[in-house]
Amino acid sequence: MTETPPRASRAQTPNRVRGTQDIFGEEERRFSHVLSTFDRVRRLYCFNRVEVPVFEATEVFARSIGETTDVVSKEMYTFPDRGGDSLTLRPEFTAGIARAYLGNGWQQHAPMKLATSGAVFRYERPQKGRFRQFHQIDAEVIGAAEPAADVELLVMADQLLSELGIRGVTLQLNTLGDAETRNVWRAALVAHFEARAGELSEDSRARLAKNPLRILDSKDSRDRPAADSAPDIDAYLTPEARAFFDAVTAGLDAAGVRWERNARLVRGLDYYRHTAFEFVTDRLGAQGTVLAGGRYDGLIGSLGGPETPGVGWAAGVERLAMLVGEVAEQKIDAVVVPVGHSAELRAPGIVAELRRAGLVVDSPYKGNLKRRLARADDLGATLAIIVGDDEIGRNEYQVKLLQEGTQHTVSAERYRQALAAIDKVEPILARNMLVSIKAGFVRHLIEIGG
Ligand code: ATP
Ligand code: MG
User: Which has the closest alpha carbon to 163: 42, 261, 267?
Assistant: First the structure.
């Protein structure tokens, strides 16, 4: 007999921490689909995968992302470890990758095309599409000053979105010019905003001294009239900066990637140069930016390294997953159903053999023939392979085609031929491999030598 412990002594079930998620089922399938598609696409573009730590010394982010940004000033998870060092959970990937590039002497491999993905952490107000632990995919090119790197990253982002079947996303593109352009433009902006300081929000008045470019993309409606009438960068572009931007847009046009100029799209920090971009949608409410990036030629210098150009982007996996269509559950090729004691003993061998041949196979742990066949139906399996003690005696298998509802007696010899034939079925496409393996197996099992 079990006794119910008195309520007071029962342990409290811990809650999920605010802003974190448990991802499972249909949601998990869409999430994994985003990651596997990214992994396939980044290989097409010859980007090498890199793994960087989940936490770094706080200064890695403080120095490279910049003290004045929201991320560093308000959103980082920073804590002293037991040894008293200040550590921070990564709020993004670029800083850690830049730190790794310098620390490991990867300059010798420049230009490096790197890709990664994983959890990132920001202390923000959780809402739809905004979490405290979320996930990013990230692509960077370090050590290339050429506009071709910007183009390649943008074309890759575009291909990723289209392979994910995500429609209605617009690439908004801007240039922040080179250092010279930016200084003159910045002075013109400060003059413009100072003359209208009275109209600005408190936040933007504070930005005027620290980070005036950020006023341009302010979401506060009080700032919009001054921001919208501010001078565009175009009049200040040096011929070099103009040529760089033209090369990027020409590359996009050549690759057939549609873009839109957004002269109000900025990156606040001084080390951002030339290209700035966002892929935006109106399908996610306020959280409409799915992928964002730009060129950061001064970042590695800010970490104490030699001046090294870089360009990259990051996208929120959750936001992409919200935009992809339904992802079907994995198809199961066969369910093995043993009936009787000796069959039960044989089953693990049969299952292992099929799986080693590349078939997706399940085998319920218990239940009678009827229950296990019902389970095979629920799983949407193509075949049920029924092995009873009788079949073992006669050296044969009962194969049921679950969709057709037909059952066939298959000799052990033919079963073996079918398994052997799996190797010979030429995969049409890597992505369809399981489909063609299965088709070959079934064809040999049932149709050939019938
Ligand atoms: P936002 O303006 O939405 O706060 P951000 O400028 O802070 O975005 P980036 O630092 O450019 O975002 O990060 C790249 C991408 O990561 C964003 O485009 C978005 O898809 C995703 N992202 C950013 N913050 C979150 C979050 N808290 N939860 C989920 N996804 C996020
Ligand atoms: Mg943010």
Answer: 42
